Amino acid sequence: MAGLTAFFAAFAGALLAILLAAPLPFLLLKPVFAWMVRRFVKLVMSEPYNENLWEMMTALQHHPPRIVVENALRASSPGVLERPFGSPVKRMDFSGLVFSPAQLSVLPAPESAHVDLRLTIGPAADKPLKLELPILAAGMAYGLGLGERVKIAIAKGTAAVGTATNSGEGPFLPEEREYARYYILQYHSGHWAKEPETLRQADAIEIRLGQGAIASAVGQIRPVSIEEKARHMLQLPDNQNLVLPSRHAEIKRPDDLAKLVDKLRNLTGGVPIGVKLAPGARLEEDLEHIVRAEVDFISLDGGEAGTKAGAPIMEDDFALPTIFALVRAVRFLRERGVKDRITLLSGGGYSTPGRCLKALALGADGIYMGTSLLWAMTHDQVLKAIPWEPPTQLTWGSGMLADRFDEEEAAGRLANFLTSFAEEMKMAVRCLGKTSLKELNADDLVALDEWTGKVTGVRLATEPYR
Ligand SMILES: Cc1cc2nc3c(=O)[nH]c(=O)nc-3n(C[C@H](O)[C@H](O)[C@H](O)COP(=O)(O)O)c2cc1C
Prior knowledge:
Elements: H1 2-21, H2 23-46, H3 55-62, H4 65-76, E1 97-99, E2 119-121, E3 129-131, E4 135-137, H5 148-161, E5 164-166, H6 174-179, E6 182-187, H7 196-199, E7 204-208, E8 219-221, H8 228-233, E9 242-244, H9 256-268, E10 273-277, H10 283-292, E11 297-301, H11 312-317, H12 322-335, E12 343-347, H13 353-362, E13 366-369, H14 371-378, H15 392-395, H16 407-431, E14 445-447, H17 450-456
Parallel strand pairs: 4-13, 5-6, 6-7, 7-10, 10-11, 11-12, 12-13
Antiparallel strand pairs: 1-14, 2-3, 8-9
Flavin mononucleotide (FMN) is lined by residues 86, 138-141, 145-146, 168-169, 186, 208, 211-212, 276, 301, 304-308, 347-350, 368-372.
């Protein structure tokens, strides 16, 4: 008992000493800190501008920190700069549109109403691809971009909710095919993953002409950026870059696309064949060639799209923003009378259920997402990387933390994420007084400003409904 009392007395004494001593350093530091602040403010207010640290403030407003850092990176190495995840430049997006809630003249659908989110890609194909959800994982290359575990996690996560994943332009990864319920194989400009037995494993094939983030820029993938196993699969020597040409060897003239579509259709026994492209001023001309080639689907990847690494000039200064491209493509396909036969998938910058649903109301049939899926999947696994490394070191195939990526955990997160998107979209569809995505149209939206109204053809918020 006496021992216990002595212990508590010693403890209380120590605590009191700490409490009394703690402010001491602060009391000593306070005048030093105040002197430093005063000195700094005085210097800022009196030194000539060109000797004054304040010049950094105005200089960084003239050239924002991003530009200064990117130019510093250019100065440290003469190669083309490779920026992950697409352009930081903000373009017009879907935020100028709001949905029009069903209240009385149109009643909301009851909360118990089933909402149909299903999507059929290539309804006229011999083997149409039927999905439960119109949100798909965009093509993200195995080995050149993402690690094997990440690709498998995407395959498992998308399978769990009944949607498709896309191979991207890496080497064919059999495990990804095995775990994917619906697998879209990308037919790119490289020479790999094109054997007939590989192509026959696809549920759909996407001929990649370009991407929103990098248009058709040649891909020069350095040895350090390629996963070891992928390098072996590609039979690439250790010190050699992997080159993804800007053109397909088989497409020398626009008409050649039709021959390629035909070849792939025959070879696969009729799975949907599509084309992925970046939209530009000649979008309608490109689409005319694509429609004539009798494709089953079109993947239109807007300028806001992400990528593993792209040159800033390609990411910031090329390609129509997603909303412009989407509206023009929908209009073109309708006027051409093929909107019901050719499935339109829109990609580039989708990150919320609201944006996806607005695009679907404007006429997209399905949405491709890339970057958002990676953030959702990585979830709190980022804690394995930060604060010392960027989280992408977990996801890139060549990342130093790639073997710490937990594939099962990520697949579960992705399934949650996609399910949450679906539930939010269903809630919104009911509030439009509808029960199926097929019932949505531009009439469900209102434009908040004239420019958005002009771009999208959606009624202005200032106009009465007629
Ligand atoms: C890590 C990563 C790898 C990608 N790899 C490919 C690829 O191999 N082929 C391709 O056509 N697009 C690729 N993309 C682009 C996506 O397919 C898609 O167009 C883009 O992610 C959509 O924009 P979002 O990221 O804003 O959703 C990649 C994107 C990311 C983020």
